[in-house]
């Protein structure tokens, strides 16, 4: 095992009567973007909750270890784990509209998330929020910050969640299918935004998705999840050499060959020029 | 105009009229006009007088204001208590939630009216009328919270496993922050509970008063005035003895209407 890894994971667990994760093992290197792909029911969301110690809140149980900076997160007390959540590990959840509190303003979301880990008060918070809103390409005026989640679009809500995840400059961001609720144009923009943030700040990103197109656009490495364990892990550039049936079935579901997607990997998405349109231009 | 808005206007109109009647110079709910006992409507006493010669309009107006003030304060207290108990039960250890709900069930299984009578009759009868009014509504508030706490508990448990709560935990929010986060989400549950408690407390006070266990004389109360209806001989003297009852029904309908669409 690499001792330099930012995160070292070995997990087993699930819910009463069913094992979802079976001796699942992987590592994340600092600054790396890893895509964890798998079909529905493969255990993706269970991994997310396990990594941040929240599986028991959904009635699950987990054993093993999640080692980050030499500390096993699963062995920490709730108080210590709380201090790490949002500050060292942040989460970008799947459904932006349900993940934000519909009853309070966007500003309150930032204020509470700030107060959870930083006691420096209002001014540094406003400064940081202004910086982040520019990063995620959202307006930072009072009128926007006073809006509540139902008053903004799904794409804007997802950007707010990304900004919230970045608030305390965490070393690791776990993105749990962050584009699944979005239209293709916004999907491509969010993927590019995450890629840009990783390039600029070197934030390690664990990108969990069933959408191989966005994974190939964003990630350095792909880990294929099947029946609660990682069956294959390889660099994105070598994805065509995948041999496991689970990997192959994901690759076969792609509308174009993986090599074609890799060719357009480093082109930023423009509004009307989505991956699908790019794919149409490819020679058959 | 919606039913709710109409009911609210009726209620505001009644409160303003009652306030104007009570605040009129020389108006006293305890003044006895010995020349006109159990009188019908007149210029001096538009709604007649009771058997002590006290002006019925002033007494009904004062009763309306006392009853509504007491019921609103009582409902606010009981809703706040229910919000606290329900939320703590939902967010505390499982055993706390389970045992709190058991206590609520036990409370709800008790014969509520009988319990009120028992508690109220255990209190000394020598206390001042103002104290008797305060205690009556406090007793109502103290006994009224379990049903509301149950509803809050169910709502808070649903919120505990919601997506935003999970995200709040993943953001590292403190427990107190999450409860502050939670309260605006429970408002849609607490507001109807509060509004429904008000007419319930108005009628409960009237029932207690009619049994002689409510607000003490000479302070006017719905119950005290409904007590007059026990005397069939008095009913024949003047139809105005039904005035407090009629107004009580109007107030209750207005309160129920206000709570209807909340």
Helical/strand content category of chain A: alpha/beta
| Count of spatially separate domains of chain A | 1
Protein chains sharing the most extensive interface? A-B, 29 and 20 residues
Total of DSSP H or I helical runs spanning 4+ residues of chain A: 12
Q: Superfamily at the CATH H level of chain A?
A: P-loop containing nucleotide triphosphate hydrolases
Characterize the overall form of chain A: globular
Q: Which fold does the CATH topology of chain B refer to?
A: MetI-like fold
Q: How is the largest sheet of chain A built, in terms of strand order?
A: 6-7-8-3-9-10
Task: Describe the protein.
The complex is a heterodimer of chains A (284) and B (262). Chain A has 284 residues and is α/β, with parallel strands linked by helices. Chain A has helices spanning 44-51, 78-84, 96-99, 106-115, 122-135, 142-145, 154-166, 184-201, 212-218, 245-252, 258-263, 275-280; strands at residues 7-15, 18-28, 33-37, 60-68, 71-72, 89-92, 172-176, 204-209, 221-226, 229-235. Chain A has one domain: Rossmann fold, CATH 3.40.50. In chain A, the strands form two sheets. In chain A, strands 6-7-8-3-9-10 form a six-stranded mixed β-sheet, sandwiched between helices. In chain A, helix 5 (122-135) crosses helix 7 and helix 7 runs parallel beside helix 8. With 262 residues, chain B is mainly alpha-helical. Chain B has helices at 3-23, 56-91, 94-109, 112-122, 129-160, 163-170, 175-210, 222-226, 232-237, 243-260. In chain B, helix 2 runs parallel beside helix 5. The two termini of chain B are 15 Å apart. The mean pLDDT of chain B is 83.
